[in-house]
Specification:
Chain A is an alpha+beta fold and 659 residues long. Chain A contains 24 helices and 21 strands. In chain A, the strands form six sheets. In chain A, strands 2, 3, 4, 5, 10, 17 and 18 form a seven-stranded mixed β-sheet that branches. In chain A, strands 12-11-21-20-19 form a five-stranded antiparallel β-sheet. In chain A, helix 16 packs parallel to helix 22 (507-522). Chain B has a two-stranded antiparallel sheet with strand order 1-2. In chain B, a hairpin with a 4-residue loop joins strand 1 and strand 2 (114-115). Classes of the chains: A alpha+beta (659), B mainly alpha (371). Chains A and B meet through helix 2, helix 3 and strand 1 of A and helix 7, helix 10, helix 11, helix 12 and helix 13 of B.
């Protein structure tokens, strides 16, 4: 019996199946009957009611897109605006012969390739009774000419709409960004209810990262339509809620001064308020006109921008990575003090060449024969490589990179923009992940002067110097300072609390490094001493000249080969003011600058001048210096040849060109 | 070599065309259904002939696949089954990985066409369950039920995760029907159904917000006049205003004035109901009942357990399509993306349905010689 039970019984199974199939069919019939009962309920019992509703069904909801929030600078200068514009729309249903119509229409309103391509693309995707935009942003002339000829073109109409305009154009292209028409990819990504009726979405910059706030909530209106589905009148309107207006912390005057100071030379500058992380200026040169992108950029304009060797679309401040060079020396010096390896009075003798004990390879100073014995302040003032070579070697790469990480190197600053580069902070872990070779002591040595693998974005350096200037309190850089719901609503500041306690443990260490940075600007042999003339508050700064690639000759640099140097070097300058109560920190990078102080320094000074002017020449809570009015504020004086250039025999660096 | 292959291919093709191994009543039912679908589509699609032509093309493609599959004996299908099931589940995993972080992804882009792996599971799922139960002692015990449950849950979970609730329901139902037909004891069914019902509050937790919204708006459609509620209200108006006799072909105001969304795809049955009334609905439902009944009849005549379970499950899942779509159109069930078979516009659904009927034809051709 037991064995029989485990053998399959085809007859029994067949019978079992028949019973099951019969049961299934009965259940299915019951289900279908239930369905029919429901249909009978709707179609017989409630027939009259639904007939009435169907006849009265002349009301259709239509979404009203919200007005996009406006963007202002910190003083209320308009940076992104909505302006009424007119576009030509065609209802395909009402056109008998589309090619002929477009041909005829082309004589009245010029239609170019891009217009027609976009039109045909949308035509395929939309229904026959929905109007399709043919040409955006009609000029007044075109509107007039069309109005006269309108009778010839049934189904074509001029329709008003709101479009985005950037009144200051290129100046804020890399900060504010731009909006673009919603495309097929966006349709999948965006909430269909919130974006009903909206044609544009933030593509880059603030427009993109604050899309949620700027967009607003759509409203809807109930339209009465006739038997053909055409609108007769509006029955009810539920107004949309416009997006929030944004106030940037950027001051347009500083931004303008910064952009003009570059005079078109590729580079980037960032100014940050060390007291709160607010970005006061952020430029990347060259730049582009964001207005081109709003209603679809033409192929010709786009290829002109992408084929430009200076890459105007590339946001150097946010994404460009460059070796920081000497600009990090003050922070390396600070690490020496904080770690207890150095006191401010400890000295090092610069002989012109530094050797790792037991190794034959020399690491050069900038001046033949060296500058002799220097302490920390002197080493910062004259940018003495040997001091920092030795310090880095004594400290070891692990400590050095851990300390530098506290100033934000090697990771995105977290600014409220999308697409920031992380840069590279040299460390054993980084090298292990990116190379098969072990860490060499020589790499520690050159890390001490900001060369080697080290790479930073101008924003990162600005953030680091602002963190230092603010006595080590780290604030995440922020571009948007406040929001406002409407013209009459109160300004709502966006809080930006510090991301942690001060990264400087002993206030005396700050004072010692600050002294060195002041001597850069005021010392007898300071590299930035030509930049302070006429500025009524104390400055503290540091220049940097980083090499894009290793030198090929053994010659010391002098003034006879400026053009060669400019092609080879990145010029940096960082500065904060007033040194006794820092309220602005600036980092400037010039992609092709011969010397940090003489090339990038004047740009930083012009930003400071604009900042001072924006305060009416008086900075609160800071000591005012006696100034002779005769000195021209920002003229780059003849620069003597004493700007040190870091020398790196071992390491080639040219990380600045790759995005 | 090539000539031999060519000759073989020609012979195979000629056999398909001259001696098709099809069940005439079922083929006739499907043909009538296809015609009804095209006629409705012509009206619902604003007399757009290219729409109707495209759909007819898919029917022809589906019919071709039907004839092809009908030549494959069930024993061969059975030996392929684990591979087919494993392959289609693997494709689901690929879709899940590709779709990572991109919202809802159901498609695999093959370059020349886009292809939805979950569609395959509608067929391979009942095949797999039938394959597993075929050699076992029936009715199945708890152990076999648990294994079948796992076979169903893995792909169904992947599909629900996409998220595509409608297809997940269809795939689960197809597998569950095979289990039901295998003779699973009634008390076990009762116990399982009770347990699942008890799990509903937990399952609610795992639904996407938009899926919850759809269920909630079913209870109160007026709460969301711009979104899901709009579908439900307008669909019921269309059905109800059709009355007993309907407004007549091409006289659906709801569809023509664009009040009814998706009126060529998921909501085409509302257009049908509006134009042909309760009489039309009854006729169409009777046609569906006939097709399902014929499927079960073929299943009863089948030679072995595998064929029986597979044929029965395919027929019963056809019912799920009709019930879920009809219920949705009539405002009885939430809005899920389940098409009305052979009536809704859409490629993969029609093609995969007809392929499934090809399997039925093959089972019919290999039926028991006498009863």
């Amino acid at each position: 019996m037991k064995i029989r039970r485990s053998i399959k019984d085809p007859r029994g199974e067949s019978l079992l199946f028949r019973r099951r199939a019969a049961a299934a069919f009965v259940l299915i019939l019951l289900g279908l009957c239930l369905l029919l009962v429901r249909f009978a309920y709707l179609q017989v019992a409630h027939h009259e009611e639904f007939v009435t509703r169907s006849q009265n069904n002349r009301v259709k909801p239509r979404a009203i897109p919200p007005a996009r929030g406006l963007i202002y600078d910190r003083n209320g200068v308009l940076l992104a605006d909505n302006v009424p514009a007119f576009r030509l729309e065609v209802v395909p249903e009402q056109v008998k012969d589309m090619p002929a119509l477009l041909e005829q229409l082309g004589h009245v309103v010029p239609l170019d390739r891009d217009d027609l391509d976009a039109f045909h693309k949308q035509l395929r995707q939309s229904r026959r009774f929905e109007s399709v935009p043919l040409k955006l942003r009609l000029t007044e002339d075109e509107i007039d000419r069309f109005a006269v000829n309108r009778w010839r073109f049934p189904g074509v109409d001029v329709v008003p709409y709101l479009t985005r305009r950037y009144p200051l154009g290129a100046m804020f292209a890399h900060v504010v960004g731009y909006v673009g028409r919603i495309d097929a990819d966006d349709v999948d990504r965006l909430d269909p209810v919130r974006y009903k009726g909206t044609s544009h979405v933030g593509r880059s910059g603030i427009e993109r990262s604050y899309e949620d706030m700027l967009h607003g909530t759509p409203g809807y209106e109930l339209l009465e339509v006739n038997a053909d589905g055409r609108t007769q009148r509006v029955l009810e309107t539920h107004a949309p809620k416009p997006g929030k207006n944004l106030y940037l912390s950027i001051d347009m005057r500083l931004q303008k001064a910064a952009e003009e100071a570059f005079a078109g030379r590729p580079g980037a500058a960032v100014a940050i308020d060390p007291r709160n992380g607010q970005v006061l200026a952020m430029v990347s040169v060259p730049t582009f006109d964001p207005n081109l992108f709003v209603n679809g950029i033409s192929q010709a304009d786009y290829s002109a921008l992408t084929n430009d060797p200076e890459k105007p679309l590339y946001n150097r401040a946010l994404r460009g990575v460059y070796p920081p060079g000497s600009t990090v020396k003050p922070l390396v010096g600070l690490a020496g003090l904080e770690s207890g390896l150095r006191t401010p009075q400890d000295t090092v003798v610069s002989t012109g060449v530094f050797y790792i004990p037991g190794q034959a390879r020399g690491y050069r100073d900038d001046q033949r024969g060296g500058v002799g014995r220097v302490d920390l302040a002197g080493a910062i003032e004259q940018s003495v490589n040997t001091y920092f070579y030795k310090l880095a070697l004594d400290m070891g790469i692990d400590k050095l990179s851990a300390y530098m990480a506290e100033f934000g190197f090697g990771k995105p600053t977290g600014i409220d923009l999308i697409g920031e580069s992380a840069g590279v902070l040299p460390s054993r872990e980084w090298k292990a992940a990116n190379s098969r070779q072990p860490w060499y002591p020589g790499e520690t040595v050159i890390a001490g002067i900001g060369q080697g693998f080290w790479a930073v974005t101008p924003l990162q350096l600005g953030h680091a110097i602002a963190t230092f200037a603010g006595h080590g309190i780290p604030y995440t850089p922020r571009l948007v300072m406040a929001t406002r719901d409407g013209v009459n609503a109160p300004l709502q500041p966006l809080a930006n609390p510090p991301s942690g306690p001060s990264v400087i443990r002993k206030p005396a260490d700050w004072d010692a490094v600050n002294l060195g940075m002041e001597r850069v600007m005021y010392g007898e042999r300071g590299t930035g001493r030509t930049l302070v003339a006429g500025f009524p508050y104390r400055l503290a700064g540091k220049s940097g000249t980083a090499e894009r690639y290793s030198r090929t000759t053994n010659a010391y640099d002098d003034r006879s080969n400026l053009a060669y140097l400019a092609s080879r070097n990145r010029a940096w300058f960082e500065v904060y003011a007033p040194a006794d109560n820092p309220q602005i920190a600036v980092a400037v990078l010039l992609e092709s600058g011969a010397w940090g102080a003489s090339s990038a320094g004047p740009i930083a000074r012009q930003i400071l001048d604009a900042w001072l002017a924006s305060h009416g020449g008086v900075i609160p809570d800071a000591e005012r210096l006696p100034v002779s009015n005769a000195a021209p504020a920002s003229a780059p004086a003849e620069v003597p040849n004493d700007e040190p250039v870091e020398d790196i025999p071992a390491q080639a660096t040219s990380s600045g060109d790759t995005p | 070599m090539i000539e031999v292959l060519y000759a073989r291919g020609r012979r195979f093709l000629r056999r398909i065309l001259t001696r098709p191994r099809i069940d005439l009543p079922l083929a006739l039912g499907l043909f009538v259904l296809a015609i009804a679908g095209l006629v409705t589509l012509y009206s619902a699609g604003d007399a757009n002939l290219s729409l109707v032509g495209g759909q007819a093309g898919r029917f022809v493609l589906g019919a071709g696949l039907l004839l092809l599959v009908s030549r494959i004996p069930p024993s061969v299908l059975r030996s392929w089954t684990p591979w087919l099931y494993g392959g289609s589940t693997a494709l689901l995993v690929v879709v899940a990985i590709l779709g990572e972080g991109r919202g809802s992804i159901r498609w695999l882009d093959l370059g020349f066409m886009r292809f939805q792996p979950s569609e395959l599971l509608k067929l391979t799922m009942p095949m797999m369950v039938a394959w597993y139960l075929h050699p076992r002692q029936l009715p199945p015990g708890w152990k076999d039920i648990a294994v079948v449950g796992l076979l169903i849950a893995i792909p169904a979970g992947l599909i629900a995760e996409q998220p595509d609730l409608g297809t997940a329901v269809l795939v689960t139902a197809a597998g569950a029907f095979a289990l039901f037909l295998s003779g699973m004891a009634w008390w076990r069914i009762g116990l399982l159904v009770g347990a699942v019902a008890g799990m509903i509050p937990v399952g609610w937790h795992f639904l996407h917000q938009y899926q919850r919204d759809r269920v909630l708006t079913l209870l109160n459609p007026e709460s969301d006049p711009l979104g899901n509620g709009w579908h439900i209200i307008q669909s019921q108006i269309a059905v109800g205003s059709g009355g007993v006799f309907g407004k007549g072909w091409q006289h659906s105001t709801q569809s023509r004035l664009d009040f009814l969304p998706e009126h060529t795809t998921d909501f085409i049955f509302a257009v049908f109901s509006e134009e042909f009334g309760l009489i039309g609905v009854c006729a169409l439902v009777a046609l569906y009942a006939f097709i399902i009944g014929r499927c079960l009849w073929i299943a009863m005549e089948a030679r072995d357990t595998y064929s029986r379970l597979l044929a029965g499950a395919i027929g019963m899942s056809f019912f799920v399509y009709v019930f879920v779509n009809g219920g949705m159109v009539a405002g009885m069930l939430p809005v899920v993306g389940v098409p009305m078979p052979m009536i809704s516009y859409g490629g993969t659904s029609a093609v995969s349905l007809l392929t499934g009927f090809g399997v039925l034809m093959s089972i019919h051709a290999n039926r028991k010689t006498h009863l």
